[in-house]
Amino acid sequence: MNTHRIPRSWLMLALGTGGQTASTTALYGLAYLIPAFREDLRVSLAGAGVLVSCPIAGILLGLVGWGVVADRYGERLALGAGLLSAAGAMAGAAVAEGTLVLGVLLVLAGAFGSSVNSASGRLVIGWFPPDRRGVAMGVRQASQPLGTALAAAVMPPLAQYGGLAAALGLSAVLCGATGAATALFAVDPPRSVRPAGARAPAPYREGGHLWRLHGVAAALCVPQFVVTGFALLFLTGARGWSAAAAGAVLAAVNLAGAAVRLLAGWWSDAVGSRIRPMRWLAAATAADLALLTAGAALDSPVGTAALLLASALTVSTNGLHNTAVAEYAGPDWAGRALGVHGMGQHTAIVLVPPLAGALIADRGYPPAFALAAGCAALAVVLLPAADRASRTAWTAPADGDRPRPRAGKAADQCARRASRAGTAGGAPTARR
């Protein structure tokens, strides 16, 4: 592969997106193996649910640690080591005997694979200037619905014809291939030149800006997983759609959600802000979910239309708040900040489906949709008033194709150029 003919920023975006897609397919796609778990392992539905949750538990355990690795030793090491180790754990899971051993290996796969959540975001943001980061992170975030769609399309037939070993083996291959590609071709983005021993100040000591962004992301996970978790049941149970029709429509809407993430990123680049588009999108999500609540209560077609719109709206801000966190934290702290950011979201991922399911079983859909609308409104309130630039600038040039500056004269020249250019949204204005 001749990487010299490919702009380095594009290559890093491809590697980060590929790693995120593989990780999503492997770690979040196990829900599509529930029938195979029950048939091959003879476990109950609750037991199958526990196995599906094992990688999520592992992700929670590994997020901050991999963030530290990415901050201190670079994105290439964190991504390559994490994905290759996840591949090993998944390969072990494919041949594991007994549910206990399988569960432990799935937890390990999640812990290793969580490196992607912190390091791939750093890799993408570090190689793009502020006026292109929103779109770049939108592409990276679009890998999540694409990975889920890949799992939905491939995992069930593989499990049916080849057994669990084939499906879990595919996860190992995907993680191994992307991990090897990262280890071979990834280049850590440039960083600011600092005197020996100097450290950037911890962003958490400078007010509550990051904590508010973490709270916004966790709050917005509630409507996202209420809608994605129960849209199919609502359409088939409350609206009388066939499972095939509902699945086809929801698949199309999820692909539209990936496009909405790209549009949100483009919008944030165009206006030079992550906060303003987030506020409008969160407010639109709250309003749409209020319509969904009313439509569900009144058995109106408005509810169905609002549900389909919500399937795209509720995922629209994911790239924005991840970009805002990394930009403010700066290159010395972005990995850890994204790790903490992901912990809040994954806690919501674990808690929302069972709690919302219990609420729907007891009270019906309207209270659950109302709760989701309230959480979207809470996100609007929690959002900071404006973006804040990090005191530690990302130094990626506009063309994104220059290697990490080395110590000495080249580093001094890079630092002088960054100083003359100034900062915009946590990064210097690009010059040629």
Total strands: the figure is: 2
Query: How would you characterize the largest beta sheet?
Result: 2 strands, antiparallel
Helix proportion range? over 70%
Low-confidence stretches: 396-400, 402-432
- Widest sheet: strand ordering: 1-2
What is the CA–CA distance across the termini?
A: 28 Å
Mean pLDDT: 84
What multimeric state do the chains show?
single chain
Description:
The radius of gyration is 22 Å and the shape is globular. 76% of the residues lie in helices and 1% in strands. The longest helix is centred in the middle third of the chain and has 56 residues. A hairpin with a 2-residue loop joins strand 1 and strand 2. The chain folds into two domains: 179 residues, MFS general substrate transporter like domains (Growth Hormone, Chain: A), CATH 1.20.1250; 177 residues, Up-down Bundle (Growth Hormone, Chain: A). It starts with 7 loop residues before the first helix and ends with a strand. A two-stranded antiparallel sheet has the order 1-2. It has 432 residues and is an all-alpha fold. It is built from 15 helices and two strands. The C terminus is likely disordered.
